[in-house]
Amino acid sequence: MTAELVRGQNHTLPQTRLEIRVSAGTPVVAGATLGDENGTVRGTEWIAHPGSPQLPGLEVSRQAAADHRLAVDLDALPEPVHRVTVLLALPTGVGGPVRFGAVASPFVAVTGLDGTEIATFTLTGLDTESAVTALELYRRQGAWKVRAVGQGYAGGLDAMLADQGVPRAAELARSIQDSVTRAMARSVAPPPLRTPDADRVAPGAGAPAPVPPQDGHRPAPQPPEPIAEPATPPPGATTGGPIDYAHPRRQSAAPPPPPPTAPPTEPGRPAQPVAGDATGWSMDERLYNQIWGMFEDLARTTAAYRSAVDFAESRMGQELDRTLSDPRSRIGGAGDRAREEARAKRDELTTRAREALDRDLAQLVAEAAVVEPALPAAFAGWDNPVWHAYRVPMEIPMALRIGDLHLPENPALHIPLLVRLPLERGMWIDSGRTTSDAAALMDSARLRGLAMECAVAHAARLLAVYPADEFSVHVIDPAGSAAGALAPLVRSGALAGPPASGAGGVASVLAHLTRRVDLVQMAIRAGAADSLPPDVDTGEQLLIVNDFPHGFDDRSVTQLRYLADEGPSVGVHLMMVADREDASAYGPVLDPLWRSLLRVTPVADDHLADPWVGHAWTYEPPLMPPGSRVLEQVLAEVAAARRPRRP
């Protein structure tokens, strides 16, 4: 299974002949440096770049491109080489973007020669940087590993090379950019869009100009670019046509199996969407990538619309300022006419932008309508009929749905929020009053109860998607206030033990899980995973903590922090149900715990932000439909699968 890395995470490489594939959505320069056991680049002869693309065991692209394939043969590298660092930089002097914050997040995949993905990394969080260290392959104790780096440099390529100790870094960076500029100048521009009337020449023009097709179908809108001049048409305001799905998540060297055939459409209409049209080796992987593609499409088209509206407002203000700065325009009706004309232009631009947005949203709504019924249980909402045919799985899925996301431009269009399994970090379910209207109008007691119901729903989904006996749930409920919400877990027998209450129960559960983390970590370091004591459960563990910090002393808080930091790497995960304000009494002691957990809410709240375009997404928790018995049915199946079978 592909390892989806986050910044700083590493993964063992199972083979030495590899390809590193880059999808950036905009032309970038790709290169690589070789380092010795201390990470030192011994000279320019240890740097592969477009001006010198080949080294022993390494080859990079000869020019800037949106997609790259870097060939690496680790066995063919010189003996002193212990590290291969992959570098990306935006080309200079070609009129393109000058910072990574203005383009889609680059996506890097380490694959085998057959295209099988070994590890992937999306470089998020970049802003003013124009060069970035994407990842590094390094040798440790005879084995090669890959580490996700994502270190950006606002100073560009020369600052990045200087940081690696390359002598005369600025001079080398200029020569690399010069070679890229020459290569781009020699490249042939793609031909214009051909139509039946494409050879028509406009009066007075010296070259043929493409004419829109007669059915009104125009090229798809491109991702938003920063507005450089006030006269530039706003993104999304003058383009039309169907959604453009060309983004990193839907570009992969691994071709997907043929998706289901869509019914034929009438000329001039967008093709009907089908479930599983993204890349991937299995249907689940294709659906996973398709959902992320829908998320990125919605983010991009909404960003284009908001940029167009901002541009229209800004231009109206500039025109009014220019008109009213002349005293003569304030006499008579000149000023009023100027205001009316400026507002009319603003309204026209805004209307055209909204039309483009509505067209793209309609395509996404149609895609969501066919994708949602096709989702497997791990990706599906509780109201999906797939849960009525639920059976305990034989293997772990690649991801789990923990809620939905939507934007105010179309609240009805929900995108599933998926997290990869095994979980990389725990969750903090905020039971306090947030800034959302739903939380402000709700009674505090009801809000706390709803937060615990949300925790039970999350725990039930985790239990349901793991094979029998490979996932256990523990609960700490110091005062017993969550008995009602926990009833489905208790009645079904899905819990590893009764909810712990009182100071003694809290201490016992925390000691048990802390001991498990310690023992498994020591066994892994010693390479003796088979020598664990028989009472240590090596399956995944989830600890639900209700009403924190009531019933906790300083030692218990320290153990919670330890579980949050060290537990996920060895299969122990934390789910806190607490009000951040109640926990503030501990001051900065709990700040690392708060930051290490994914914060979700039991009611709709717009607290999640993506690092790609910075939208504030509204999160919808995965609560059960009113009157549904699906939760009890699923937990009953889980409990039955755990019971020992009689001979």
What does this structure look like?
Helix 3 packs antiparallel against helix 4. Strand 6 and strand 7 (65-73) form a beta hairpin. The strands form three sheets. Strands 1, 2, 3, 4, 5, 6, 7, 8, 9, 10, 11 and 12 form a twelve-stranded mixed beta sheet that branches. Strands 16-17-18-15-19 form a five-stranded parallel beta sheet, sandwiched between helices. Mean pLDDT is 80; it is low at 185-262. The protein is α+β, with helices and mostly antiparallel strands and 647 residues long. The chain has helices spanning 156-163, 169-186, 283-324, 334-371, 437-440, 444-465, 483-492, 502-526, 554-566, 580-583, 591-596, 630-642, and strands spanning 3-5, 10-12, 17-35, 47-48, 54-55, 58-59, 65-73, 83-89, 107-111, 117-122, 131-140, 143-153, 399-406, 415-420, 427-430, 471-476, 540-548, 572-578, 598-600, 605-609, 616-620.
Any key phrases for this structure?
twelve-stranded mixed β-sheet; five-stranded parallel β-sheet; alpha+beta; 12 helices; 647 residues
How does the SSE layout of this entry go?
Layout (H helix, E strand, L loop, with lengths): L2 E3 L4 E3 L4 E19 L11 E2 L5 E2 L2 E2 L5 E9 L9 E7 L17 E5 L5 E6 L8 E10 L2 E11 L2 H8 L5 H18 L96 H42 L9 H38 L27 E8 L8 E6 L6 E4 L6 H4 L3 H22 L5 E6 L6 H10 L9 H25 L13 E9 L5 H13 L5 E7 L1 H4 L7 H6 L1 E3 L4 E5 L6 E5 L9 H13 L5
Parallel strand pairs: 1-10, 15-18, 15-19, 16-17, 17-18
Antiparallel strand pairs: 2-12, 3-4, 3-7, 3-8, 3-9, 5-6, 6-7, 8-11, 9-10, 11-12, 13-14, 13-21, 20-21
Helix pairs in contact: 1-2, 3-4, 6-7, 6-12, 8-9
